[in-house]
Amino acid sequence: MDDLKDNSNPRKSRIWELDAFRGLFIICMVAVHAVVDLQMAGIMSDDAPPAVFNIIKDYGGILFILISGICVTLGSRCFKRGAVVFACGMVVTGVTYAMYAIDPANEVMLIHFGVLHMLGLSMMIYPLFKSLPAWGSAVCGAVLILLGYAVQSLRSDFPLAIVIGIIPKGYYAADYFPMLPYFGWFLAGSALGRILYKNRRSLIPRFPYDSPPVRFLRFCGRHSLWIYMLHQPVVYGAVMLICYAFYR
Questions:
Q1: I need a surface site. Which of 17, 48, 200, 248 has the fewest CB within 10 A?
Q2: For 109, which DSSP code?
Q3: What is the reported pTM?
């Protein structure tokens, strides 16, 4: 996630728009989780968020995964980096279980297979698809996306079934991104990366990417893993402080 070359400007080592979009999407994810925490705490009603919230909630994750798929075609050591991301996902799982042990009411916040697990495993699997042409990755991605939506109605109590998108009846998790259909979106992103960034250069090099707002988004994009790892304890802690200060 850190080897995004921008040969259009030798002073830059990354393609700025990919960092900026990834930063925008990670901010959207943080905002969605903050709203969910507020709803769970009873501070915000379930029907309070505007329509844009539901759009971000439903499609923001897909856009983030597409960007991640693009980025994997520009970097190296994807298996090693994927293992690191997957390990971070397991840390998040451990933290949510610790929160559940302290307060069993937090059961709905347990994360068994979230976006970090999915992205980490996708990066580790990607070398198996790397030799395919871009159209081959796109076709495989489309098939996996369709399979993902086909298995949504299936139910199973087998624990590992949640990895591919088959969940127990009544299952809910605050962050759940099964391999089907989301690995399909990752492969679609890799196809876009090989088509759009085959020269490993920014598509819009004349954009004022050094302006403060864009610099902020690029910073968030470069550090998206750490932001994701740290934001939920911070947001959840802030919500608990609000509850203690104003709703006790």
A1: 248
A2: G
A3: 0.88
Mean pLDDT of the chain: 87
In a domain, 8, yes or no: no
Q: With helix as H, strand as E and coil as C, how does 120-150 read?
A: HHHHHHHHHCCCCCHHHHHHHHHHHHHHHHH
- Position 29 scores a pLDDT of 87
In a domain, 173, yes or no: yes
Nearest residue to 140 (alpha-carbon basis) of 86, 198, 179 = 179
Q: What is the CA radius of gyration of the chain?
A: 19
Question: Does any domain span residue 3?
Answer: no
d(CA 184, CA 144) in angstroms, rounded, equals: 5
What's the domain range around 28? 16-246
Sign, CA torsion 173/178/180/185: positive
pLDDT on residue 172: 84
Average pLDDT over residues 89-93: 93
Per DSSP, 158 falls in state -
Domain contains 85: yes
Using alpha carbons, list the distances in angstroms from residue 225 to 134, 229, 230, 231: 27, 6, 9, 10
Which residue's entry shows tokens 């970090």? 116
